[in-house]
Amino acid sequence: MKKLYYTSFFYAILGLIAGVAYREITKMNDFEGNTILVALHTHILVLGFFFFIIALILAKLFNIHEAKSFGAWYIVYNIGLLITIGTMATRGMLQINGNDISFLPHIAGLGHAIVGAGIIWLLVLLGKRIKS
After folding, report:
1. pLDDT by residue (tens digit) across 39-49?
2. Helix (H, G, I), strand (E, B) or coil at 67
3. Sequence-separated contacts (24+) of 68-73 with Cβ below 8 Å
4. Total-model pTM
């Protein structure tokens, strides 16, 4: 369960840094257009910080962390989330500089799909623990 707490803590710090970075980077570059960086802060806080706090509560209440595939779920979900936020950050920085790479949204979409699969997987783990 400590792993869930530390992961939540990590994403809380990362999300807060992303929010400050968005504000400061756009200000330093006199950027006033649209950039995906505006959504990065929220993605990290909701899909990272809040999600892992909820997973921690579920672990405390239903012992989901004792399920066989919990370790694999944890790795897959984090990979999906890191792909998502990594591509969003990269694309956002490119947009501030007036550039873009056309395939980055597709990679971010892959990360979102992995996160979505991770959410379903967690619900399956929870369902099995509730039945036990």
Report:
1. 999 999 999 99
2. coil
3. 69/121, 69/125, 70/125, 73/118, 73/121, 73/122, 73/125
4. 0.93
